[in-house]
Amino acid sequence: MPVPLLDLTRQHTPLEDEFKAVFERVFKSNAFVLGPDVKALEEEIASYCDCSHAVGLSSGTDALLVALMALGIGPGDEVLCPSFTFFGTAGSIARLGAVPVWVDVLPDTFNIDLADAIDKVTDKTKAIMPVHLYGQSAEMECVQAFARKFGVKIIEDVAQAIGATYGGRKVGSFGDFGALSFYPTKNLGGFGDGGMLVTNDAELAEKAVWLRNHGMNPKYYHKYIGGNFRLDSLQAALLRVKLPHLESYHTARRANAEAYTERLAGHSGVLCPRIIPKAQSVWNQYTLRILDGKRDAFREFLSDRGIGNDIYYPLGLHDQECFQGIGRGGESLTVTPMLAKEVVSIPCFPEMTVDEREEVLKAVWDFGYAK
């Protein structure tokens, strides 16, 4: 039985009539950029994320970029960030002339290793950018303590983790900013690019509003050098249809993840991700570590059975060609290169059936590692 890594058709088809209705409403309104639906989505997301303010933006990467700009991060400033993450995390830092400082991650949670971060703080360090990778919160109480000790800002990369919690509190609400992505594959995915910043700081929110529209307020008067980072009305309207269903999507993902973790506990060649105390993951990805250099063979085995899989991520950012001579700290990383050779994500999407999940589990065991 083939099992896709993700099937958005199953999620979108039950909502098709609602999508068509909001499309027609926005079409007739002629309010295509920002507008009432963006404002309404901002209010709904802010409330959902336990934050006072939200600012709709053109993508999750642009959300990170605007957060850095609003905090005054610029040339020569250093920002601590994991190397094991999506390009946008560090790319946003480098685009401003700041220096990404590569920090290792923990081997069982895939999130930032603060012990390594401590060793890399200098008087140029201005911020830390923890990534809630694959849907699980980083240890945010420790990140906050770190930021207080060293006097740095916190930008949470929440691209894969909207709705995840730490100590019962939503990620994105701990730092100076939380950056969300609405890319179609995310737990709350749109129909193209889109993103948002959340914050509890009114002044930072106001600055982000200006920056997303060329630093302009009022019209044609520019206080800052911003950019065109605006969110389209149609994307916001469509996301508002999906937002009320987000918790049910999370619940279904958790059921799949819990079944994987329980049923693969005795597998000698597979390591399942660990959930830290106080955290509740939303499982944007369920990512295994395949040991003994067999990851590529494992992927080929799954693919031959029609089971979707992918590698997030095959190379640490510190090893990417574009970052050579730009970042620092990569030479000390040990976990990141190891994970890049071992990780593979398997289907965990909310609409996956129990039979499909059983097919995935059978394939993992059939690969030949069983004790």
TrEMBL record:
Q: Which GO terms describe its biological process?
A: polysaccharide biosynthetic process
Q: What lineage is on file? A: Bacteria, Pseudomonadati, Verrucomicrobiota, Opitutia, Puniceicoccales
Source organism, top-level taxon: Bacteria
Chain segments annotated as coiled-coil in the UniProt record:
none
In terms of CDD domains, this protein maps to: AHBA_syn
Which keywords does this chain's UniProt record carry?
Aminotransferase, Pyridoxal phosphate, Transferase
One function term, GO molecular function aspect: pyridoxal phosphate binding
Q: Which InterPro entries match?
A: DegT/StrS_aminotransferase, PyrdxlP-dep_Trfase, PyrdxlP-dep_Trfase_major, PyrdxlP-dep_Trfase_small
- Please report the name of this protein according to its UniProt entry: DegT/DnrJ/EryC1/StrS family aminotransferase
- Which Pfam families would you find in this protein's record? DegT_DnrJ_EryC1 (PF01041)
User: What residues make up the catalytic site?
Assistant: K186 (proton acceptor)
- Membership in a protein family: Belongs to the DegT/DnrJ/EryC1 family.
